[in-house]
């Protein structure tokens, strides 16, 4: 007690650990004395401490350290506020302002409605004095549970930031002040706020100037609350999206908004910013970015926007080129567009560890060359038939395409073999050579069957007593091989021998297993009889007669 009476507070606090565990009621009496000092410090000798509030705070720390006794929260909160007022007074706030703040605090505790002009004015003064932490501490005391008061004080911070951002400076002190105020910006409302969104828009606009977006995001982080960060990110995503859509490459077709955005992102030069936007866009849309790139590319192929397709795949997405060629092949509307697509997505692209896709694209290139040859050598092919073959090129051999679109048997064999042996692209020896060899062998087998059928038909014609047929529709041997003075029967015999020898020559050029299969087919033709041909001729004759009768009846 003597230490307390003489104001020797440090010495008195040193006695507390010994007295607090004493028996006989001394401990309870000690705690009552300390509580009295905390609640009523004004008449004591507080000079060495600095103020009665600091004296009360000193003994509050002693009480909580050495005893389990706790002061009621409202007393502790009021003591903290009074200590804050002392510090505010040292920063130049007048006694009138301090008195108004104290009254506002008491009114808030008694749940009375008071004008918060004094609080706003004090916060604004502290912010202008570059004391954002004191301003944030003062605002913390006036944030009630409904957050109505806190939202108004938050607007004071926002208005200060907007004023500062309206006159940007390049000085380091100005930049750090913005970050400091932003990191202490009070927030308690989960609802969207117009002023906050305006602030986020201004911050986003300044991110490439004196401010850095990483520092902005770090200043908006709050413990157990991501509202401020979410508001900024959603605002930044909206603004970035609008900016990209405004600057998207022009296309002849009207693409959907998502595809315009993807095209603009893939053509944007600032790759770090682009990938950040892609990440947030994927989170927002729920789609993987590769899926969106493929959808956009396929739509460009449909509308034949090949220049924009090239730009879309010029950077990180170049490895998707050959995959896109296969996916978008059926969208080609002509042989010309297919050739352009092959050039962009295959011929002009470097290898991307996609050997299987390269081989498939080589096949498409070769098959497209066959299709173009058919169009050039048989101009009467309908456009629908060409497109049907174009869209199923990967399913059929070159021989099938030739047989479907041209009178293949009428062409000279050497022309077709030269066509099949034309190189398509610089392919590997294994893949390119095998493909060409396969096509040539199939055609040689076709020629062997063709001459076998020709020989059979010539032999049948020998006994048909045909007086009208002076020259066969099929190619004849040369004049040096056939004497003009021989009889028609002898001419047929020579033609038969010629076709048979041609068949034999082609059989000798094909592999043994394939030759065996061809011989089986040829031997099966020996079981045909004259009635088989007569029956076919009668059927054709009956069909013509029925058609003529129907025409007359009409």
TrEMBL record:
InterPro entries: ZFYVE26. It comes from the Eukaryota. One of its GO terms (molecular function) is phosphatidylinositol-3-phosphate binding. GO terms for cellular component: centrosome; lysosomal membrane; midbody. Transmembrane segments: none annotated. GO terms for biological process: double-strand break repair via homologous recombination; mitotic cytokinesis; regulation of cytokinesis. This is Zinc finger, FYVE domain containing 26. It comes from Nothobranchius kadleci (African annual killifish).
